[in-house]
Amino acid sequence: MILTQCAVxxxxxxxxxxxxxxxxxxxxxxxxxxxQHWKEGGHDQLCKLIKKAGGAEQYNANTKYTEAVSxxxxxxxxxxxxxxxxxxxQALHWKTKEGLVRMCACRGTAGFAHVSCLAEQAKILVxxxxxxxxxxxxxxxxxxxxxxxxxxxxxxxxxxxxxxGWACWKTYLGRPEEDVxxxxxxxxxxxxxxxxxxxxxxxxxxxxxxxxxxxxxAPEANILAAQSNLALSYRQLGRFEEALRMQQKVYxxxxxxxxxxxxxxxxxxxxxxxxxxxxxxxxxxxxxLRKEMxxxxxxxxxxxxxxxxxxxxxxxxLYLNAGAxxxxxxxxxxxxxxxARTARRVLGAANPAVVGIEHDLRIARDRLxxxxxxxxVSSVCDMVAAMTPGGP
Length: 392
Fold this sequence. Notes:
Oligomer: single chain
Structural class: mainly alpha
Domain MYND-type: 6-47
Strand content: under 5%
Protein name: MYND-type domain-containing protein
Keywords: Metal-binding, Zinc, Zinc-finger
Low-confidence stretches: none
GO molecular function: zinc ion binding
């Protein structure tokens, strides 16, 4: 259950406080709000409809999904004009009448689809895995369809990722709490909300996920993954110190549990380094990334998004430092230029990481030119550090 607020006054209820409507499970902080909602808030008209939809959680997910699909289609309308879905071959979805989306690395006429078609495709693939009892590798590959384009094999981002997060959650939320697929769906919802910049909602979902995993006695690796995602939400909401403390613990735990060559450890290293950069720990971030970047290149390759993200944050740790030497500024500019070129080719120009890398490249070039011209740009550097997101 991720509806964690009173439906009337929005008081935080967590997962256990308050009370529920006996018919549809809508949550309240107490009887006063429940009565008010029935008499004045329209719940008397909605209660049966919510129950028919499967309860408050399902009704909420269905509603949020519909809203997210509309937002995604509108955001992609200009890019998708005159195109058809590569899955159903129609411009408008035959049933929902929704428009097309595309927020991946596909180019030209490839990759246009309806969120409903992408969701149905993923749902079918996951069902086949469960019915055929396929191995873990096959399960993982099929599950990626909930967030990765099957054509360019790059992750969806922005409002499309958000819509697919709601699609995934509404599909599996009715399963038992301990069901692995339901746990993954909750995580996917959190990731989608994060991708769509709904950071407060993402935080709520990720806190609910962590609490659930602890209650279920989940393996330490799963707890670490949930904490890593939660730390990202803290950082997006400006709670940098909390994010840094948690990411440091997650990185240490992953290093101990998985080893330094595990991709999961590399992700936690990147997140930790990015938070260090945010808080001005430039030397510590550089030291960490100098250690991890060769591992990422060897394990994942030069063009992998994680490797590119590491190089991006390494360059930021160089040029954002007010005490950077001229050689360090030149290294930062060169690193960003090479990273931007590769990232644009691999991820596409609209990817948020590409936009961020190219933004930092422009600022780094300005700072290098100013230093070569003998000007003090430390105040500009401080401003950029405060503005630029950096990292995943």
